[in-house]
Amino acid sequence: METGWSRKNRIGTELEAQEPEQGGEKQGQCPRAQQTKTGFAQLYNEGSENACDVRLKLTKEALTIQKQDVICVSGSDQSTNRRTVTLHRHPIGGLGLSIKGGAQHKVPVVISKIFKDQPADKTGMLFIGDAVMQVNGINVENATHEEVVHLLRNAGDEVTITVYYLKDTPSFLKLPLGSPDPPSDHSSGASSPLFDSGLHLNGNISNTAPSSPSSPTVKQARYEKRWIDALSIPLLMARISRFRVSTVKLRRNSFELLALDGISSGILQFNTAHDSADWLRAISTNINDLTLQNMKMINKCYSMCDQIIHMGWVSEKVQGSDGSHMYKFKFLVLKGSSFYIFKTPPVSTLDWVRAEKIYNLCEVLFKVSKVWPADEIWIQENLYLNHNQNEELEEQRPYCFSILVGHGKSHYFSVELGSDLPVLEKSFQKAIFMEVQRTGSKTYVCSSQGEVVCFTVDFISGFTCFDSKSKNIIWRFKFSQLKGSSDDGKTRVKLLFQSPDTKQIEMKELEFQDLTAVLHCIHSFIAAKVASMDPMFINNQSHARKYIYNT
């Protein structure tokens, strides 16, 4: 069954200039136009496997999902959506409408076409998408397509039908979103629930003279079909997922938007990968802009040494109780000297101590993982990397990175867009370099030749080893004198330094309780030192940027 659109492409973008609310602009100032992106999509229900047409309206603050509805705009106080209309069959065009659907597809029979200047069109009360409830007083809500066709065909010259607008019309019925169709040849044809049955609804006309005009039972009532707001998702701290829940299975040309409070947009489907990518990029851009604005406001409450450098959603690969791997949303924050992992964004001061994990930035290492092509590579991504075609792609998402922490442990994350990778990598580098310069040095207790000593990494002087009791310096080397290193992957490391006097290589062996943290700290200080002397170092060392821009 098709879920895509076979009718003409209606995916589009409009830039609407919205007038500011009253009082929103000071006198003498020019009103600032707000850009709004609009277009069409399908809202997919994974339970029923049906999708209905929706209209999307994106502003800087929210994504609004609109559904079509028929409302009374004048001449009636009726709040009900039900309308009863009497049609007078025309000798040539019949009732002037076509129908689709039926109980065999678990949907009501709906009006699929209304022909211009025919009886149904002239009432002004019938619309494409109306579900037929009654025909001449006979309830047909659970009737099959053929049963409704039979009733309409044999209802006589005057047919009274009761309808209501079906907001969530399944997209497989392929109802047009536009205006009534022009008159057409109403030759006879066989009925089918998935094809328009209107050509054979003329019935047996008792005479050939034109009948009196069709008229609604409620006189002077005027109805219109409009796009009505159904759901608005605030974009502040919202997150997007292109994948099925907790899995690596990419949804085809689809994604889901979830608000901070967990409210979901549902699965938004698009006709092409290009349209899907276009909307994903637009929504992501607005989310990122709001996040930056929020960071600026929050940072006003913190000192310069405790500023937020980055915050945003990722998915973390975790192991389930049955041993299988799954992905769960996590919220990452780089703030001051620490790297935070949250289940949900911190919204109060107390939330900062409730993080799942907190690591010192000097002791973590950001590493871009291999980026595998997904099943649907979206146009703006183009992340094709050289990779081994024979390796398994199971349990892999396309845009991944690892955060290596102490004791040889790590966290494995993925992001929705490949363009998020260089942003995250640069944010980590910036946060780490700022922390290195801020703290100046880090000292670790270790052992050397059976003696307890202290090992210091200093941004200015380099490496120093001194006695833990007397504080006497045992040896000291600059960063530039470190020529190599090796470790046993557990506790021991051998550092190879070049003596400034003899130019000979001297080996210094140290043993640490958390060797990984120390090695990450050494890497952070050396990288920060190089970056302080070479402004282009960060960009040149960015693996993620190479993935994005060299393909």
From TrEMBL:
Region (Disordered): 1-34
GO cellular component: a single term: cytoskeleton
One Pfam entry name: PDZ
Main location: cytoplasm
Domain called PDZ: residue spans: 84-167
Keywords noted in UniProt: Actin-binding, Cytoplasm, Cytoskeleton
Residue intervals passing through the bilayer: none
A GO MF term: structural molecule activity
Cellular compartment(s): Cytoplasm, Cytoskeleton
Family note: Belongs to the syntrophin family.
Name under which the protein is recorded: Gamma-2-syntrophin
Organism: Xenopus tropicalis
